[in-house]
Amino acid sequence: MTTPIDYVPPAVWTWNAPNGGQFASINRPTAGATHDQDLPVGQHPLQLYSLATPNGVKVTVMLEELLAMGHRGAEYDAWLIRISEGDQFGSGFVAVNPNSKIPALLDRSAAVPQRVFESGNILLYLATKFNALLPEDPAARTEALSWLFWQMGSAPYLGGGFGHFYAYAPAKFEYPIDRFTMETKRQLDVLDRRLAQCRHLGGDDYSIADIAVWPWYGALVLGHLYNAAEFLQVQTYTNVQRWAQEIAARPAVRRGRMVNRNWGPAEEQLHERHDAQDFDTRTQDKLSPAAG
Length: 292
Ligand SMILES: N[C@@H](CCC(=O)N[C@@H](CS)C(=O)NCC(=O)O)C(=O)O
Known about the structure:
Shape: globular
Number of strands: 4
Radius of gyration: 20 Å
Bound molecules: glutathione
Oligomer: single chain
């Protein structure tokens, strides 16, 4: 074990300065808007304000799946929120999500526009609105929702714990990396055992449980997150691998992954989405010049 830093917490914590971590410049200990900034509004009932992080991808995959099923009411405008530049602290965004985190959805088809925040709740809202991707049978529905809520409770240990200390912290600290690696591998084992029993997390059918879990744990075992595939020995979770690959091949998932993405290979980026044709008619000037 490496020597821990010689730090004695003061009686009262004070916010001194950015701590050097990758996202230090946007972290602060208070909530609320920092500046006036209206959100753009497009022509569709559903307005999505997001970015293609795993939490954002859940919603764009869901919307693309609904459209693929023929739910025309799921047409949406997806606007890019650049969290590294502080867009989530603009007054318009905070009005839709007081927690200042993507994704945030505004459903303007209601008499009074309905704001929806927290990605798990957005999935549940859309599944209920369109009566899709969530079983009606109470037992099957409850099982799917258990896995949806499992994701919401578990992923902060993967992202805020493992991912932060393995990939983003200003130095490599053995204690937190050990702690969160242990938990991440335990979670992968939970999924692996479940997926040894059934094709999808909720049972036979693909549902919002898979849509919530895949952008985190699917991406992790496919080697897309934190460059940690070898460290975590992700190939050993064979049932998660089978499930992750099957979902990755779905056309709606391939489209959803691209929406609001402004980093990585140019051909995988679609900064804003307003129409299904945006996927086909992307032009170079809509794409980032370089991988981010
Ligand atoms: N529990 C939230 C988490 C959302 C979240 O953490 N979003 C991140 C990106 S993945 C974010 O917007 N971070 C900006 C910030 O923390 O200022 C959800 O699932 O919607």
